[in-house]
Amino acid sequence: MKLLVINPNISGDVTRLIESEARRSIRPGTELTMATAPLGVAYIETRAEAQIGGYAAMQVAAELHADHDAVVVAAFGDPGLSALREILGIPVVGMTEAALVSACQVGSRFSIIAISQRIQAWYRETISACGFSNRLASIRALDEPLAHIGRVQEDQGERLVALAERAVRDDGADVLILAGAPLAGLARSVASRLPVPALDGVTCALHQAQALVDLGAAAPIAGSFALPPEKPCRGLPEALARLVGRDLARSVTSVG
């Protein structure tokens, strides 16, 4: 099994954090291809940045998805997730949706622990779009600028743990999601210090991607995620243009 894991921001340090956690979450024989966005921002915390990250993820997936069995979008908020599901013939998993689904299987109410206050609005909208707003206990977030996104765990780890403890004590969280690719691996390292289960979106996404490949569901030929219609396009990278607006039946690759 081959999985393409895309970091939709430009931080190579964050990609390395994602890869480290992803490699702990794969089975023997599963291969990873790691990719970092070629354009965009160091980390995503606004709607505009999410749109850019989604485009970057689509560009990377278009270039690299062939010969892979599934794609993972490794940014909390899942930029580009629905679009990628629409244009690719293989499973596409987002770390937010994966973490939310897993959290609801573990407890009744979950809290999100995030890296910035500004990110909260986008996260709430993403949670609502996934249909889990009524299970959200709270979002608690750091309230100071991040000096180096690749070192947020080292620089802010104790504050993040304190936020997690408050979410359980004050907000009634049954399960915690330590959100965002820059926090990849933190849930594993602090789990023993927290009074309820803590989930990592990268871990959840990698396990679910492998499970979806095992399920072997056929690509849709009807419904809203069927291949989009052929139409002229301009100004897109060649690989993406082949997926967005031409004869999709010739260009979508599905690996069984």
Automatic annotation (TrEMBL):
- Origin superkingdom: Bacteria
Query: What Gene3D superfamilies does the annotation carry?
Result: 3.40.50.12500
Entry GO MF terms: amino-acid racemase activity
Listed InterPro entries: Asp/Glu/hydantoin_racemase (IPR015942), Hydantoin_racemase-like (IPR052186), Iso_Racemase_Enz_sf (IPR053714)
Q: Which residues form a coiled coil?
A: none
One of its Pfam families is: Asp_Glu_race
Which protein family is it in?
Answer: Belongs to the HyuE racemase family.
Its protein name is Asp/Glu/hydantoin racemase
User: What species was this sequence derived from?
Assistant: Halomonas cerina
